[in-house]
Design a protein that fits this description.
Layout lengths: L2 E4 L3 E9 L2 E8 L1 H4 L12 H18 L4 H10 L16 H16 L50 H7 L2 H6 L1
Helix pairs in contact: 2-4
Length: 175
Amino acid sequence: MPHFGFSQDVFIVLVGRKREVRKIHWGSWEKPCESKDLGGLGFRNLETFNKALLAKQGWRLILKPNSLVARVLKNRYYPASSFMNANKCSLGSMIWNNILWGRGILEVDTRWRIGNGSTVSINIDRWIPRPSTFQIVSPCVFGDSTTVNGLMLPLGGWNVLLLKAFFSENKVEKI
């Protein structure tokens, strides 16, 4: 029966004995991480799994800003901004720096859904439904503090005339 041993980058299988000497068969870590259907052992890639769990903690900071943990971290590390705009702090705790490492997943795969638009910056935040960046790429005449609600009608909905004045037809369609 094979015995399994682990190293950081190498998966070792010890098989058989010949005169009390064990044979070592070296293989890459990717093979046991493949699904069982593809011939692997179905192990999880621990780095990817860890990053996903840290991204989940960051997501909780966004969804529950009034929780005790979110309030403590906000007060300590990003008092004047949001979690997504917080800077990495050289004096930050290991937990904080790791949560910021997991934030990379959120940065790639999230964007704002516009409600009243009062908290979404036109230039900085990711809000336009464009698959690559979700942001305005071309230069914009709006300041960084200008929010999306300035592009909306008082009763809700988009001010199409204003959008056409500042954005290309393609962007107006996407908005």
